[in-house]
Amino acid sequence: MIRIKTKEEIEQMKPAALLVGRTLAEVARRIEPGVSTETLDSVAEDFIRSHKAVPTFKGYGGFPASLCISINEVVVHGIPSKRVIKQGDVISIDCGCTLNDWVGDSAYTFAVKGIKEEDRQLLKVTKESLYKGIEVCQVGRRLGDLGYTIQSYCESFGYGVVRELCGHGVGHVMHEEPSVLNYGRRGSGAKLREGMTLAIEPMITLGNREVVFHSDGWTCTTVDNSTAAHFEHDIAITEEGPMILSSFEAIEEAIKSNSNLELI
Ligand code: MG
Ligand code: MG
Fold first, then answer.
1. Which ligand is nearest to the CA of 175?
2. What confidence score (pLDDT) does residue 170 get?
3. Cα 134 to averaged position of ligand 2 atoms, centre (Å)
């Protein structure tokens, strides 16, 4: 069942979604060659808890950390570890915060200085595809229109659109109905209605779209080891058009102030 939210509920969801962006900004300030992903995870957890919120991912389905940190060929669900950041890395960081009983869920892919030109374009196109998908989120359009838009844009660059994972409804819990696929046929799927709140999250690969899940039960990497990117926003569908509940503003300010990162 798709859980429709009232205007008041949508307003209540914003602080959680915005806290995710502020957490990712805090993490972005700490990204530098040599820092471990485990350290970045504790930065996020401390920040979230200091804002009277709970890291949604920790313990979710047994996930051991507050962030998913997925480097280069890791698409999503990378587990923070002693692995250290290197020059030229592509780092996708996904974060969830539960605040006042609402969940925010957002992801951003960071470019460490020295990134390859082909990776730079992948990040740019993946972020653009997210916004192109959001534009489609008008009352009366369909989920298939959204998936088609993301898929056709990314595939026009020769990129792979991961099929095994998708976006979702978001609300009091992280994963609500419906599934929000990043591929699809125009005019197909559920109709978009006022009050639907969705987490839209294209996961795009530079090469082949096939992925493999590792024996840790989480880590998902490209089969051909090509780089992957992942951007995610929470949105609400309103009569006035899509309303983005999360924000990349604080994240992008933090990137600009960190000489180890490149804003794409
Ligand atoms: Mg997420
Ligand atoms: Mg999500």
1. 2
2. 98
3. 14
CA 93 to ligand 1 center in whole angstroms:
8
The answer to whether 206 and 227 are in contact (CB under 8 A) is yes
Any idea which residue has 């559920």 for tokens?
Answer: 190
Interval 221-250: pLDDT, tens:
999 999 999 999 999 999 999 999 999 999
Confirm if 72 and 86 have CB atoms less than 8 A apart: no
Which residues, in sequence order, are CB contacts of 58 under 8 Å at separation 6+?
45, 64, 65, 66
pLDDT tens track for 10-66: 999 999 999 999 999 999 999 999 999 999 999 999 999 999 999 999 999 999 999
Going by C-alpha positions, the residue among 148, 88, 155 that lies closest to residue 126 is: 155
Averaged confidence pLDDT in the chain: 98
Q: How far is the CA of 255 from the centre of ligand 1 (A)?
A: 20
Query: 95 has which bridge partners?
Result: 67, 106
- Ligand at shortest distance from the CA of 77: 1
| Residues 13, 14, 16, 22, Cα dihedral to 10° | 170
Task: Point out the ligand nearest to the CA of residue 95.
Answer: 1
Which residues, in sequence order, are bridge partners of residue 220? 76, 213
Cα of 174 to ligand 2 centre, how many Å?
7
Q: Express each pLDDT in 181-226 by its tens digit.
A: 999 999 999 999 999 999 999 999 999 999 999 999 999 999 999 9
Q: In what order do the strands lie in the sheet with 233-238?
A: 176-180, 167-169, 197-200, 233-238, 241-244
